[in-house]
């Protein structure tokens, strides 16, 4: 063997770590109401499962993330992970009749690449932190099986059948089991296979599979906030938590304004806030002349201190001839994201004698919300006439004023 292989100066190879996300459950309520299963529900605009996957992809020690999904959820899954372009996220595999069977399917799918360690995690625990993942991986250097949990801090009572306290259970050494549950891959794969071969089904957690195979399972602290999203209250709390985190992450509040005017000429309609309204005039301009979206784009650029629409999309450039102005707005929103910020709010006022904007207001708000990737409650659209005064009053043009609030992280450029 070449000496370099055994040289003590050569760093030991890092163990390879795969993650199996168990997402094959459908939930009785979801099945009966037609709601998507919990792992596909949105939290602050993003599916829970995408957040969970990202929590692992953001950890540098993770080499592969495999999701086990219900065969009926292929489309939901594809939609949820669209945009998560990371080669470590491999194609999902269909789950089995219960959690145990789904984990076995996941472990079998990893056989070809046989990682050193595998972490099995609930897809509905998106708040798993790096330090908890670190603790599991570190412990697997010494142990075959590691269980993330939380020491019980509440006093625990056991009730009798009538609902009265029968006894106070000593809470010393009591833990609530959670995930990830980490294992040496070969050992847990063998334990799962052996159980299946013996016809034992319905084992609800993988640590129990390891226990049944005779392995000792070490408990490590998984963090009290690593909750399993189960009830409506859990989702509500998670929403509030994420909103608060986003708020605190971007404390630098900036407000920008924008103003634009386009000339009216005879035509068949105008595009305002991305919505075409049939009319006996049209707006003259290089692009689709959406005066409202131009003002809004400038408001966002203004909040960023990043020039104006004319600087980024010069009218002299033929690429923007007839362009849908949503493109300019999207670019401004991209600049906010690039700086780690969020668009917190925007508000547009259209100044026109005609056509009437009121009937289109909600469609316009939704169009802006969709283009900006924010919720519609953060978008205002208003219209006013100019009481017959000036160019707007004479129907020679339409003006628009916009305000945008952008929140940036501290220390941004
Ligand atoms: Mg313009």
What this model shows, in words?
- It is built from 14 helices and 18 strands.
- It folds into two domains: 17-236, Spore Coat Polysaccharide Biosynthesis Protein SpsA, Chain A, CATH 3.90.550; 249-408, 60s Ribosomal Protein L30, Chain: A (2-Layer Sandwich).
- Helices cover 32% and strands 27% of the residues.
- α5 (99-109) packs across α7 (185-197), α7 (185-197) packs across α8 (206-212) and α10 (291-304) packs parallel to α12.
- The protein has a seven-stranded mixed sheet, with helices on both faces. The protein has a five-stranded mixed sheet with strand order 15-12-18-16-17. A two-stranded antiparallel ribbon has the order 2-3.
- The protein starts with a helix and ends in a 5-residue tail after the last strand.
- The chain is of the alpha/beta class and 413 residues long.
- β8 (156-159) and β9 (165-169) form a beta hairpin.
- Bound molecules: magnesium ion.
- Magnesium ion (MG) is lined by residues 260, 262, 285, 291, 294.
- Magnesium ion binds next to β12 and α10.
